[in-house]
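Quick one:
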Amino acid sequence: MARVCARRAAGVVIGEYLLRRGYTKPDPSAYDRLTLFNSLPDVNEDLKAITSHFLMHVSTDRNLPGQIDLIVEAEWLKKNLLWDSTI
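Output:
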């Protein structure tokens, strides 16, 4: 459940980022927003690496590979993409 909530939070952050850059109606799907963000040519590769964690598939025991903490990463995205935001 935490993974789903973290992905939704990241989707909100990415949606706001896209709006601030002129995208008029970002898709309501967090998955689609994250995918769009990762396809943008002007986005830093480090940011794409973080957002790709939200797009990973979990294993059969519902875990992500490695030591990935999506809640921490969603907070990091907000801080680094929306530094002037209060959302």
